[in-house]
């Protein structure tokens, strides 16, 4: 899909981290980017910096998401790219020792369900609403292509660690959405892919560098090559390629420096 100046894109979680890097990369490629996020101050700052639009959106709330799409489309027209980076989840082991009682405690069904809403259900919500809009507009090229959807999974989808029962399994679920959705949408010319980032130098990880430099150094050494954390702009570069390369479809792509996460 050739990216033309003024073509519209939506990036969830675009106020920081990998979402911010994706929004900037797409804007640099010529797209008009709408940022969906709850952090109004940071989101407005990023939108202003890249010449885009901020929409305050809660991915857990269908009405909030629909209002965000309406605002973005009114300003920029129908998005031809959706990049979904936002997520909400809780962490914990399936069963672990309870230090207070001396017995055991379980990662609750309620916490798992909350995480499912914030990772898997939200991914379906964003992708399906975007696809509805894409389906209604004219194709962009002779292939009949109408748009590109990119979901954010994680290396944890394949290498889930201790305490990542919800995160790992639900990110695997995000990968599981991709092929059937790509097949559902193939006659409409809408492509669907996911990206599985490894360890990236996002604000939370840079916080580890400041608070626990030895742990941060060990994380860098654990990456086969290059021996460092991923740069957000490297993630953004892949996002742009997935939008413009029409032969990427139905794929779950790792970007991780060849790391494979240990149990802990």
Automatic annotation (TrEMBL):
Q: InterPro entries from the entry?
A: NAD(P)-bd_dom_sf, SDR_fam
The protein's name:
3-hydroxy-2-methylbutyryl-CoA dehydrogenase
For this protein, the record's Pfam families field holds: adh_short_C2
Q: Which superkingdom is the protein from?
A: Bacteria
The protein's UniProt keywords, in alphabetical order, are: Oxidoreductase
Question: From the UniProt record, which GO molecular function terms apply?
Answer: oxidoreductase activity
What organism is this sequence from?
Sphingobium cupriresistens LL01
């Amino acid at each position: 899909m050739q990216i033309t100046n003024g073509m519209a894109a939506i990036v969830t979680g675009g106020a920081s981290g990998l979402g911010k890097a994706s929004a900037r990369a797409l804007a640099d490629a010529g797209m008009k980017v709408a940022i969906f996020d709850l952090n109004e101050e940071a989101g407005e700052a990023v939108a202003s910096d890249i010449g885009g639009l901020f929409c305050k959106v809660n991915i857990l709330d269908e009405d909030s998401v629909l209002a965000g799409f309406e605002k973005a489309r009114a300003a920029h027209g129908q998005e031809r790219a959706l990049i979904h980076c936002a997520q909400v989840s809780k962490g914990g082991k399936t069963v672990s020792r309870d230090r207070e009682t001396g017995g055991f405690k379980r990662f609750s069904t309620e916490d798992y369900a909350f995480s499912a809403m914030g990772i898997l259900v939200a991914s379906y919500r964003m992708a399906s609403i975007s696809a509805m809009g894409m389906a209604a507009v004219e194709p962009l090229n002779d292939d009949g292509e109408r748009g590109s959807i990119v979901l954010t999974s994680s290396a944890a989808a394949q290498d889930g660690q201790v305490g990542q029962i919800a995160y790992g399994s639900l990110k695997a679920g995000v990968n599981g959405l991709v092929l059937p959705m790509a097949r559902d949408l193939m006659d409409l010319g809408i492509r669907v892919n996911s990206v599985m980032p490894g360890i990236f130098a996002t604000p939370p990880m840079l916080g580890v560098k400041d608070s626990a430099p030895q742990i941060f150094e060990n994380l860098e050494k654990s990456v086969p090559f290059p021996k460092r954390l991923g740069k957000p702009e490297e993630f953004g570069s892949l996002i742009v390629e997935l939008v413009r390369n029409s032969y990427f479809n139905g794929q779950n792509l790792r970007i991780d420096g060849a790391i494979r996460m240990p149990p802990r």
